[in-house]
Amino acid sequence: MNFAWATRTEVGRVRDHNEDSVWPTTDGSTDEVLAVAVADGMGGHAGGEVASATALDTAMTVSGEPAMRVVAANLAVVDAARQRPRLAGMGTTLTLALLDPDGDLDIGHVGDSRAYLLRAGTLQQLTRDHSYVADLIAAGKLTPEEAETHPYRSVLTRAIGLDPTVEVDSYGIVLQSGDRILLCSDGLTSMVSDGPISEILSREDSPPAATADALVTAANDAGGIDNITVIVIDVAE
Ligand code: CA
Q1: Measured between alpha carbons, how far is 73 from 76 in angstroms, rounded to an integer?
Q2: By the 8 A CB rule, do 11 and 26 touch?
Q3: Separation of CA 236 and ligand 1 centre (Å)
Q4: Which pLDDT tens digit goes with each residue over 18-32?
């Protein structure tokens, strides 16, 4: 199997700086193991940028399974906050995927960034949001449509960097040729719902770069109130 990807991270239309971080930072293709990740930082005094960058730097430097990399990233952000009191309270989401040319996709995940699979025209969210509204939906107290406008929709129940221990969710699937994987921050999913995301990912003759651009444009056209990060990966034989 080989992987072709495109990666974008943009400030959006409202904020004046970008607290998201993404890996890789350039488009490419490979027939070797591919590591990709999205981190969406939070916290004042530049804390969000430091948290997301520190998490990614660490997760991409250590080896091992995605969940272990996320644990290492958490400790690194906790450490960085302790050393720089101005950054106390900073945190970040982290969704990291390893794609093996043998066909395995493994994910480590904390927060409300997301991984999606488009297979045979059907979009499936692979990760579960660690957010207040996701818990309400799971409990049957809120519909996904109501969650889109809920005043507390950005409140996280789990994040990287706040505590030395963190519970990391792991997911694994077996890839098929023709699969398309999307990783993104909530700057996309808070602006564009799954229907339009699926439509953009499903377009004919739209390689990863054009697809990633179209997703960012859709988020900006819908208001662009948050930083927008997307990685689109095509899986081929
Ligand atoms: Ca965000």
Answers
A1: 5
A2: no
A3: 31
A4: 999 999 999 999 999
**How far is ligand 1, taken at its centre, from the CA of residue 109, in Å?**
15
Expressed in angstroms and rounded, the spacing between residue 70 Cα and the centre of ligand 1 is 18
Residue 124 CA to residue 227 CA, distance in Å, equals 23
The structure tokens 């699926």 sit at 198
121 Cβ neighbours under 8 A, 6+ residues apart: 202
Residue 149 has what pLDDT? 86
Tokens of 199: 């439509």
Q: Are 98 and 35 in contact (CB under 8 A)?
A: yes
- Which residue(s) pair with 92 in the sheet? 41, 160
Q: What is the pLDDT of residues 115-136, one digit of tens each?
A: 999 999 999 999 999 999 999 9
Ligand 1 centroid to residue 168 C-alpha, Å: 19
Distance (Å, whole) CA 2 – CA 34: 9
The CA distance from 39 to 36, in Å, is: 10
